[in-house]
Design a protein that fits this description.
Elements (H helix, E strand, L loop, with lengths): L1 H22 L6 E4 L3 E8 L11 H21 L5 H24 L2 E9 L2 E2 L5 H30 L26
Antiparallel strand pairs: 1-2, 2-3, 3-4
């Protein structure tokens, strides 16, 4: 599922960006939900939310290293961790979608613009959305894992962390009275 999601996101993102370049570049914003959401072409030379603008080489190297790290991380996760696997697939697909843009153009094509009155969210794309959803799902997977481990520990103290002091019985030295020491 990891690689399938990554490829689906990558291909969908690139098709959407091809369409954005063909139909939105040099065009006025296209309202999808008037007053809230437009299609609007923008070239982003920075990272997420235009951070590190004009540092394309650094962002390209960082994105490539992150993609390699995600693939490695995926390989270390147990197969039954499906939500975490899917989350990493979304993140990888989004990261590689933006990485392809950086290699092709030297910038990332963004085209979704959310706003309300004078409040504008930075323009983003499908890859950015996949990364955000992937990170959120990964956090949910981590919370679910922590909850599962916590309930296992409560049900069976053998699963407890040996460094934690869950056993309330006195230690041998605690049973020695001060006068005996």
């Amino acid at each position: 599922m990891f690689y399938i999601l990554a490829v689906v996101i990558l291909v969908s993102d690139q098709i959407a960006k091809i369409l954005a370049v063909a139909f939105l570049k040099d065009a006025p914003p296209v309202p999808l939900i008037p007053g809230l959401f437009n299609l609007y072409y923008q070239e982003n030379t920075g990272g997420a939310f235009s951070v590190l603008e004009s540092h394309t080489l650094f962002l390209t190297v960082f994105s490539a290293a992150a993609a390699i790290g995600i693939i490695y991380w995926h390989r270390t996760l147990p197969r039954h961790e499906r939500l975490a696997q899917a989350a990493l697939g979304l993140i990888l697909g989004g990261a590689t979608g933006n990485l392809v843009d950086r290699f092709r153009f030297g910038y990332v094509v963004d085209f979704f613009h959310a706003y309300w009155r004078d409040y504008h969210w930075p323009v983003f794309n499908l890859a950015d959305s996949a990364i955000c959803v992937g990170v959120a799902l990964f956090l949910v997977a981590g919370l679910r894992q922590a909850k599962t481990e916590s309930s296992l520990t409560q049900a069976d103290p053998k699963h407890a962390d040996p460094s934690s002091k869950t056993d309330k019985r006195p230690l041998a030295q605690d049973s020695i009275k001060p006068a005996d020491r």
